[in-house]
Amino acid sequence: MAVMAAIGALAGLRIVLVDDNRDFLDSAATLLELNGAEVRRCTNAAEAQEVMATFRPHLLVSDLQMPGQSGFDLIMSVRRLPSEAGGRIPAIAISGRTDANTRKQALESGFEELVSKSELTALLRVASGLRRP
Fold it and tell me: Could you give the angle at the alpha carbon of 119 between the alpha carbons of 124 and 79, nearest 5°?
């Protein structure tokens, strides 16, 4: 029911979604798209950086734990970019771990929020609150 109430809440929002777990990536992307967002799915940080350069998203949503470059690495490299290249893009970390230490690490590295992967409706709520198109 909460998901239905949010339909269209993300209309016009361009989102880069990054996760190495394809099942989660597809589920989260579908939910965001059903709520009006245009989503680019990426399975790793390098792919996300390439997509961000051309897609010009309004929001970055990234898993924290990925092989190779982690979500922490990704957001730190994004935050080094100039504003006009996306360096100040709002960003949400997603993780199976949402303990106080993980939250602190995510916020200190440059994310605005940390959302549990098990609470996709929370992702909708946070994404609509951070939207800055």
Answer: 60
Q: How far is CA 113 from the centre of its chain?
A: 9
pTM above 0.85, yes or no: yes
- Please name the residue that has the structure tokens 């998203």: 57
Q: What is the pLDDT along the chain (133 residues), one digit of tens a residue?
A: 344 445 678 988 999 999 999 999 999 999 999 999 999 999 999 999 999 999 999 999 999 999 999 999 999 999 999 988 889 999 999 999 999 999 999 999 999 999 999 998 899 888 888 755 4
Q: What percent helix, strand, coil does the chain show, rounded to 5?
A: 45, 20, 35
Superfamily of domain 2-130: Response regulator (3.40.50.2300)
